[in-house]
Fold:
Amino acid sequence: MIAAFFAACLVLLIVVALLARRKSSAVAPRPQIPKVWPLLARPLVNSKERRIWVWLSQVMHDQHVMIKLPVTRFTIPAKQEGAEHWYNMLNRVYCTFTICGHDGRVIGCVDVPGNAGLSMSNQTLKYGLLTQCGIPYWVIEPDNLPHKSQIRAAFLGESAVVALEPETAPRPMKAVEDLLQAAVSRQRNPAVAQPPSYGFEPSITKDDGPVSEGWEQNSFMVPLDSRAGALREE
Structure:
């Protein structure tokens, strides 16, 4: 009798364990693409950052000023076996502006502190990482701008100082300023910030894949560039 009781308990435990294992290994339902996204467009930069962006675009007129790129976009692990660890640590780290040459290589990064400032740990992390990669890193306040020749010399070398535009040159970023100001005004007026109507609704089926499908092919984790040589101008 006792043996039968223990045998029944053992069978019950095995059944519970199997059910728990089956439940834990069940595939979670994949997220579906909504017909109407609960999102609105917004400017990439705030008014403080916009001032630095306009200034940088004038000083670095012969380079490209990129906005809020993650550092994992232009760095790569020295050894691939540690790629996942470093990606998990750095995938949310970015600089406000990244100056890029015509060959696609980063030549310098700039941070603009927010209203709460920029923590010393944040600055130390990015300064150490970028400096080790040979990329200058500066923190700039709109009310305390360095001299134009100073930042060009730091990012491009002393010979690049002569390439500064004259002070009397027209402002090519004036149109960008106007567009950004209009975007900020639209954001402050919710009545204008309505989602656009495209005249159709995407058809969603249960076979559609998740939104993140394919994003695991990250160039930080696995280099995706198969070009054998440098970029060439056409």
Notes: Residues 47-188 form one domain. Strands lie at 64-67, 97-100, 106-111, 137-139. The helical segments are 2-24, 47-59, 83-90, 120-132, 148-156, 174-188. The CA atoms of residues 108 and 121 lie 19 Å apart.
